[in-house]
Amino acid sequence: MKCPFCGLDNTRVIDSRPADDNCSIRRRRQCDECGKRFTTYEKVEIVPLTVIKKDRTREPYDRGKIMAGVLRACHKRPVSIEKIEETVNKIENDIFNLEYKEIESSAIGEIVMERLKNLEQVAYVRFASVYREFKDVNTFMSELKKMLDSGNEVSDVDEKE
Asked: What is the pLDDT of residues 129-150, one digit of tens each?
């Protein structure tokens, strides 16, 4: 690997450790020429994924859109950024474990809702109200009733996994 400081490719790994919930490896490297140290990350290459939107257009998968949606749903709720990032990682794992090259945005929405249901109920209802495009209060109440009838308690998915 080339040194970002002197540009020579005479570097060695001096420390390796897991990062991002064991999804990547953090490596500390040192240049044998200039002696400077720098960090690199090694991550599994993910097969490109295309999202098929409601209007049938296609666009590349963007983790940022999922993160933005979950952040909006959890706005002013007692959910730490660590829990949000962990949930988005799980959502992303669920999506990529399907091993599709193309996926409908509706399938992604369902995965997000399932994970939010286990993270925070108000966040789930917020996301569902936008995702399912509730047209009136009756539709909204119907979704709340389904949630209450299922007996969902706020729980941590990790306890089940």
From this structure: 887 777 777 777 777 787 777 7
Q: What is the phi/psi pair of residue 110, to 5°?
A: -65, -40
User: What does the pLDDT look like over 23-65, one tens digit per residue?
Assistant: 789 999 999 999 999 999 998 776 789 999 999 999 999 999 9
Return the structure tokens found at 20: 């991002």
121-131 vs 105-119: helix axis angle to the nearest 10? 160
Class of residue 81 by CB neighbours under 10 A (exposed 0-12, middle 13-18, buried 19+): exposed
Q: How far is CA 89 from CA 12, 70, 97, 104, in A?
A: 30, 11, 12, 19
DSSP secondary structure, 54-85, as one string:
TTS-EEE--HHHHHHHHHHHTTTSS--HHHHH
Residue 31 DSSP symbol? E
Two tokens, residue 58: 């296609």
Nearest CA among 76, 160, 59 for reference residue 115: 160
Of 58, 149, 153, 135, the C-alpha closest to 103 is 58
Model pTM? 0.62
Q: Is 62 exposed, middle or buried (0-12, 13-18, 19+ CB in 10 A)?
A: exposed
